[in-house]
Amino acid sequence: MGPLIPLGQIASGWDFIIALLIGIAFGFILEASGFSSSRNITGSFYGYNFVVLRVFFTAVIVSMIGLEYFDYMGWIDLNLIYILPTYLSPMIVGAVIMGVGFILGGFCPGTSYTAIAIGKLDAIVFTIGLFIGIFIFSEVFPLIEGFYYSDNLGNITIGEMLGISNRLFTFIMVVIAIVAFYLTWLIEKKVRKTITPYKFE
Amino acid sequence: MDSTTKEKQIPKYINPYFGGVLLGILILLTFYITGRGLGASGAIKSAVVTTVDKVAPKHTESHTFYSKFISSEHSPMSNWLVFESIGVLVGGLLSGALFGRIKKLRVEHSPKITKKTRLIAAAIGGILFGFGSQLGRGCSSGAALSGTASSSFGGLLVMLFLFGTGYIMAYFLRKLWI
Fold first, then answer.
1. Interface predicted TM-score (ipTM) of this complex, two decimals
2. Contact with chain A for residue B61, Cβ under 8 A
3. Residue extents of the structural domains in chain B
């Protein structure tokens, strides 16, 4: 029965070794999928390469179905799974700021690490930027503390918020993903006819 | 374009749906083992807290944000996400080596902009992403991907607004990329 570490089924000394191994797998998948290239990543926003959407949506639906299946089989106690809490307005503002940073920088934090690994100077600069951005946030935190903790809805799930079961939402996500895969495939075919092929470095 | 030039321009990446399935299984496994998902920005936060704590320990002690992550027992660097992020770098190295993508230090940019413009945009992008990740309680890995996977409403919210803003801003910043 999982989750293993919260249920004490793995000795705590293994934590960091497991973290390292999971990280290695994560980094390998990101790099091998093409996330170490900023022009590859931003292709999703201009229609010439939807690789981010494909990897991201596939990963989301596979893990959602997997968690529901593990729950159904009694292999995992979903009550012990960490549900990221929802702070409505701060999270929306944070995501909007991240969205602007994403299209300016061409990376998100995880992908920039893999780009550093293969020698991208722009990824090193992006990561230094992350450090500065988090430092600025930390320093101004006392001024925005009230906003940071506002609109706290607690560890609410999507299903609870929408008044449906999470299992039904998982199904809806699968349908949305399949429609998105098909539409973006059509868009990509069209855009690639007009955009000059770009060279990866 | 004949097939040989095409091959030169498109590096050998794995099929994105296959990559997605692998990533989905990894997230599932991570939840099964640790009860939590993946992350990336958390490691940089630990680095910021550690640095500031070394330089100005009195400042961090009384500060409402830094003090949350400081304990007398261990360094903020002895954190799950720090080890995981070191792993991401190693994993990127392994994949890059396997597919022959590790090369000398270089800047990837659109032919329409200079190296300098690209680096300035990357720096500003990083600063904004770092700042936003703290308000968003995680970045695309921790909040959008792992959050949505575990059916967190906040995770879904971050995913929608992060990518939604990206699409709106993409039009205005198209010169940077195409």
1. 0.96
2. no
3. 39-103, 104-178
